[in-house]
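input
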Amino acid sequence: MAEVPVELQYTSDHEWVRRGEDNIVRVGVTAHATEQLGDIVYVSLPTVGAQVVAGDSCAELESTKSVSDVLAPVTGVVTAINEALAEAPEAINAEPYGDGWLVVIKPAGEDYGAGLFDLNDPGQLEEYTGFLESEQKRIADMAKK
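output
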């Protein structure tokens, strides 16, 4: 199974959230997502100042296999984008939890953790681990067909 840093929060759509100072969140895609996408060759990011809505597309990743939407994990305003990805989208594959981050969002409200897996909670860690295992099994079963 792919690396899963416990200090982050995760969506069931394979985005991660790192809470920062001043109530901002940095967002990226998980190692599991990058494994499924393959080599990422192009990234389309929103503009700074764009409004994003939780569950709606906020970015697009093009890989050698497909084009995939990245869904905003929170509602808010984009305050920064990872401009380095325009020249080096492969950073997402190489360092999905580091230099491969996508956007920074200032959430619209204080309570923006709903629907995110918090791996510091043992119950949610177990739930998320089980979720990833079922995803991997589903993908393996599809590959057999």
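quick obs: The helical segments are 31-37, 91-94, 122-144.
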